[in-house]
Amino acid sequence: MTFTFRPLDPLRDAELLHRWVTHPKAAYWMMRDARLEDVERAYMEIAADEHQQALLGLQDGVPVFLMEYYDPRYRELVGLYEPLPGDVGMHFLTPATETPVHGFTRAVITAVMARLFEDPAVARVVVEPDVSNTAVHALNEAVGFVPEREIQKPEKMALLSFCTREQFLHATAVSV
Q1: Helix (H), strand (E) at residue 59
Q2: Which of 5, 97, 132, 161 is most buried by its number of CB atoms within 10 A?
Q3: For the whole model, what pTM was predicted?
Q4: 122: closest CA among 78, 166, 79?
Q5: Rounded to an integer, what distance in angstroms lies between the CA atom of residue 117 and that of residue 120?
Q6: pLDDT tens track for 139-170
Q7: Distance from CA of residue 10 to its chain's centroid?
Q8: Could you tell me which residues come within 8 angstroms of residue 107 by beta carbon, excluding any fewer than 6 positions away?
Q9: Are 90 and 67 in contact (CB under 8 A)?
């Protein structure tokens, strides 16, 4: 599977994102009760923030997943661990579908990681999924993440995990 990326447009993409983030499958995204305006506002804040960015992953020009990345020195993990130079935080969301494609989500996380490691300044990716999200823990492990410890975030108990460029390359045999 081949994906391309484009910056998310908070207004143009709000309806699509609203469908994705309010679906029961997206429960861990914690926006189930969000109104359209809430989604627009949340992504306008991200777009205006120099320390985080949201991208849409496209397949044949059609949006098929959401990717967010952030500087953990300023967002999400401030005070919860000691960031190293080259750390970048990441979230991704694959929307619910009536016709699941085997291997799709693994292809998505692989593409997301490859995209992050295209930047030579990125040395390590950090994630903090909900401790009960076992499906994403398995995906993370498949692309090289190693869990470090559980941390208490304001909105959840999270599993802090890290993946270096070398761990990713070893786990996926993808060249970046």
Answers
A1: strand 52-59
A2: 161
A3: 0.92
A4: 166
A5: 7
A6: 999 999 999 999 999 889 999 999 999 999 99
A7: 17
A8: 1, 3
A9: yes
